[in-house]
Amino acid sequence: MKKFLRVLSYIAAAAAASALTFAVMARQNPETKLTQLENLISEKFIAGSDRTKMEDAAADAMVESLGDRWSYYIPASEYAAHMEQMNNSYVGIGVTIVMEDGGMRIQAVTPGGSAEEAGLRVQDLITRVDGVDIAGKTAAETRTLVRGTAGTTVEITVEREGENLTFPVERRQVDTPVATGTLLENHIGLVTIENFDSRCHDETKAAVDTLLEQGAQALIFDVRNNPGGYASELVKVLDMLLPEGEVFRTVDYAGKEKADYSDAAYLDLPMAVLVNGDSYSAAEFFAAALQEYEKAEVFGNKTVGKGYFQNTFVLSDGSAVGLSVGKYFTPQGRNLAGVGVTPDREIPVDDETAAAIYYGTLEPENDPQIQAAAEYLAEKLK
């Protein structure tokens, strides 16, 4: 019995020593689970591995695990394109495309741009870029092929009415229009705001000023399919349209509050705003502010409710992460997260009409939401 107890004591002592040794080793080698896994794969995986792909996948999964649809990870290879989008400016050929099986379908051609000059048309299907078949490639991969240094030439092969045609197209600096104006019947101006990124205020003001010179007496602001943008641009546009008072408020992760105000000067005209389920963030708070101040009637479809704002942090390898770091609030102190903006007048549209609105191929006279807002404003002007 004594011998058995001695054996047990030896086992216990050995186990304790092993645990202590393991703990000491763990302290001496404070590798995270991700580092351990990466090292194991690099050293022992039989088929080899791509370190950048692994790190991108891990980073993307970490952000995805937050359960926040608004936070995002941007690989280093896509960060430049992201900034071009935020700046509403890029080097390319001046086309708007949608990915399809077999290539990219041209949805719009920038007037006066190099693609138009070369002869590319709406509905052309781009199948090759500099001889490279783009079937099966992602939008990011295809964008990399098309874009490049200003002044260089790229060969674009398209399928048009059963023919394959190749066009040499010069890459140029392209400034994407942010806000445009159209004068409708009955002295009603339509201002379409694509986003609230760079130049939004300047172009919106220019569009409004031009419409007023043309005789507009009421305005429709179209922020359907508008993904939002910079709070600073939103505040400047609201300052132009609203009387003196608070127009916007933010509260960050540390509890720090910031309120923005408009001055006493504002545009005093009958107004309407168009929204839909793809009006996000700044577009929603634009509509909500005008609605709460009772300066505009809101038409369209309920918005999704993006009430958080993101800061983008650039990482050491040139990739970046956008994290939700605070909340937005309307002039009346409402946060729209998961709630959205409910239109004063709901105007449903079918899928075909919604797609035409998205791609900008529906003329105002055939757009039921524009027409509903125009009829409302025409009555206000009587």
Task: Compose a concise summary of this entry.
The chain has helices at residues 2-28, 33-44, 51-64, 76-87, 114-118, 139-146, 200-213, 231-241, 282-292, 351-359, 368-381, and strands at 72-74, 89-92, 95-100, 103-109, 125-129, 132-133, 153-160, 163-170, 172-175, 179-183, 188-193, 218-222, 245-252, 257-262, 271-275, 296-300, 308-314, 320-329, 345-346.
The CATH homologous superfamily of the largest domain: 2-enoyl-CoA Hydratase, Chain A, domain 1
Count of individual domains: 2
Kindly report how far apart the N and C termini lie. Answer: 108 Å
Tally of DSSP β-strands: 19
Shape: globular
From the alpha-carbon coordinates, what is the Rg to the nearest angstrom? 28 Å
- CATH domain topology of the largest domain: 2-enoyl-CoA Hydratase, Chain A, domain 1
Protein model, in words:
The protein is of the alpha+beta class. It folds into 2 domains: 91-175, PDZ domain (Pdz3 Domain, Roll), CATH 2.30.42.10; 179-381, 2-enoyl-CoA Hydratase, Chain A, domain 1. Helices cover 36% and strands 28% of the residues. It contains 11 helices and 19 strands. It has helices spanning 2-28, 33-44, 51-64, 76-87, 114-118, 139-146, 200-213, 231-241, 282-292, 351-359, 368-381, and strands at 72-74, 89-92, 95-100, 103-109, 125-129, 132-133, 153-160, 163-170, 172-175, 179-183, 188-193, 218-222, 245-252, 257-262, 271-275, 296-300, 308-314, 320-329, 345-346. The strands form 4 sheets. Strands 3, 4, 5, 6, 7 and 8 form a 6-stranded antiparallel β-sheet that branches. Strands 10-11-12-15-16-19 form a 6-stranded mixed β-sheet, sandwiched between helices. Helix 7 (200-213) runs parallel beside helix 8 (231-241) and helix 8 (231-241) packs parallel to helix 9. The longest helix is centred in the first third of the chain and has 27 residues, at 2-28. It is globular and about 75 Å long. Mean pLDDT is 90; it is low at 1-27.
